[in-house]
Design goal:
Formate dehydrogenase/DMSO reductase fold; two-stranded antiparallel sheet
Length: about 350
């Protein structure tokens, strides 16, 4: 059951990154692809029906992590307390900026909240990318299963690293690049005219950045976490996951060149799933790797809830997961197609 729950939690978080990721990417490219107020309202209208629903997947993923692996949840949330508070505030700022920007018919007011929305989206993408880098690199877990990590130390990985070092910064920048292309691909699919043209341009240029950063991140793994390859050598079927990511990246180049916007968005979604799936395959059975002593690492075996609890929870998970999927499919189906700017002046995006 522990292995199954590892796969479930990884899947929930990966789906969250795909869905809320294009929201973040939309915010990152927002000020570039939308120049006039009408264009900006069009962009915001493209994510209006879905952005808050997408965050349900984050809440569900965090809840399932607490349910299935309470020791890992407790260690991670205490050790990354500062980073998690930053994430919370950035999520709040994104929501507040979307809710308040059109409450006053003032260019200065709207410009301020537009910049808040863009900056919060960019920082969230960087923070989530750096968080993935911390999971790969490892954290200074002690024998009691807890750790404290400063925001940064000397920017070098080691037994007592900071949240930010050269590798986690690299992963943060790559995360921002991937979500930028993902958001631009979404906007190219949902908009027309100048907004669509600019979104296509951002996506095309961003693909080259992703390719370069991905190569750099792969070359760094043997230095940062050589054990990540162990599962691939033991179970070569896992190589399908990075091959899927590579194929999705190639598909993105192909679809962008031919301006096939829907296919390009699906390819960017598959790219994210492939990259995160590849990471999860390499990390298993570890949830938190100790940089102090590998024996202190939290795994699916020593961090899991009781087998009886996991079995009982699985039945309820099926029910809850089915409802979330059904709701998501209904919302995306209802608001499928191109968008236009709302007609009202106040109270709307």
């Amino acid at each position: 059951m522990e292995t199954l729950w590892f796969a479930i939690v990884a899947l929930m978080l990966a789906v969250y990154v795909v869905l809320d990721g294009f929201d973040f990417g939309t915010g990152i490219v927002y000020l570039f692809v939308a120049r006039t107020d009408a264009e900006r309202r069009t962009v915001l209208h493209a994510i209006e029906p879905v952005w808050d629903g997408n965050e349900v997947w984050l809440i569900a993923g965090g809840g399932l992590l607490f349910l299935a692996f309470p020791r890992a949840y407790a260690a991670g949330f205490s050790g990354f307390y500062l980073a998690l508070i930053m994430v919370l505030w950035l999520l709040i700022l994104r929501g507040v900026s979307l809710g308040l920007r059109s409450h006053l018919e003032s260019p200065l007011w709207r410009e301020f909240w537009d910049k808040v929305f863009a900056l919060a989206s960019l920082l969230l993408a960087v923070v989530f990318g750096a968080a993935l880098g911390n999971l790969i690199r490892g954290v200074p877990l002690n024998a009691e299963g807890y750790f404290f990590t400063a925001f940064w130390t000397d920017f070098r990985p080691g037994p007592a690293p900071g949240i930010l070092d050269w590798y986690t910064v690299l992963m943060g920048v790559e995360g921002a690049a991937v979500l930028t292309v993902h958001g631009a691909s979404y906007l190219a699919m949902k908009t027309v005219d100048e907004v669509q043209r600019r979104a296509r341009l951002v996506a095309e240029l961003g693909l080259w950045v992703i390719a370069a950063l991905t190569v750099a991140a792969i070359l760094a793994i043997p230095v940062i976490q050589p054990g990540l390859r162990r599962n691939y050598d033991a179970h070569p079927i896992g190589y399908l996951l990075p091959l899927i990511a590579l194929g999705a990246l190639a598909g993105l180049f192909y679809c962008r060149r031919r301006q096939q916007d829907i296919a390009a968005f699906l390819a960017s979604s598959l790219l994210i799933l492939g990259l995160l799936g590849s990471t999860a395959w390499g990390l298993f059975p570890n949830l938190l790797i100790s940089s102090v002593d590998p024996a202190y690492s939290l795994t699916v075996a020593n961090a899991a809830a009781s087998p009886a609890g996991l079995r009982a929870a699985f039945a309820w998970f099926i029910v809850g997961f089915s409802l979330v999927v059904a709701y998501s499919l209904y919302i995306y189906r209802s608001f499928w197609g191109k968008v236009e700017a709302p007609s009202g002046d106040y109270g709307e995006y």
